[in-house]
Design goal:
mainly beta, ten-stranded antiparallel β-sheet, two-stranded antiparallel sheet, 12 strands, 0% helix, globular
């Protein structure tokens, strides 16, 4: 229970976007956003009333995506996201409770994907991702790659061999901070290779 004096958080969200088909095989999508948050949940040192709504924030940025059907069997996708976050807390001894620190969210993210159909029943996918650093959580920027080879013996069945995070043996992606205790829990993502069977019915 957070307390009777805690109010709901409010957000006003604004978005503006544009999509264009340059050719039949090439399109791009650009979207901008601006969000204003009010009465964000905060935590403080008082044991009697540790929670309050004494923070405001605004976020803005841009998302860009494009797809090119290079050949009937080969598709290329690219995406970029920029995020800027600004947080105002009423008092220095208060902390915004849920991820409102601008250094807890990556400013830049980039993803490149290639999808290639090998014959009628096989497909090969490759995805390269870059995620910017998280200074407040001491998480460095990282680049990683995922590969997948899929086989469709029947239209409703897929058997896939997948490799994830192949560029290094492990890397940190996130650290979670408990807003009440301040305990930091780290998340290390390891390189993985596995098979997957999918049956759609």
């Amino acid at each position: 229970r957070l307390g009777d004096d805690v109010r709901a958080e409010n957000v006003d969200a604004y978005e503006l976007g544009h999509r264009r088909f340059v050719t039949r095989d090439l399109w791009y999508d650009i979207a901008t956003f601006y969000n204003v948050y009010r009465h964000l949940l905060t935590t403080g040192p008082s044991p009697l009333s540790p929670f309050s709504n004494r923070a405001d924030a605004r976020t803005y940025g841009i998302e860009i995506a494009t797809r090119w059907q290079a050949t009937p069997s080969w598709r290329l996708d690219a995406a970029y996201t920029y995020l800027q976050m600004e947080v105002v807390v009423e008092a220095a001894n208060l902390t915004a409770a849920v991820g409102a620190n601008r250094q807890e969210n990556p400013h830049h993210q980039v993803a490149l994907r290639s999808a290639y159909d090998i014959g009628r029943n096989f497909e090969f996918d490759a995805t390269l991702r870059f995620v910017d650093e998280l200074p407040a959580l001491n998480v460095p920027a990282y680049t990683t790659m995922d590969l997948a080879l899929g086989w469709h013996p029947w239209p409703a069945v897929e058997l896939a061999l997948v490799g994830q995070n192949l560029l290094d043996s492990h890397h940190p992606e996130q650290r979670l901070v408990n807003p009440t205790t301040g305990v930091v829990t780290g998340t290390e993502v390891q390189r993985g290779i596995y098979t997957k069977l999918t049956w759609r019915f």
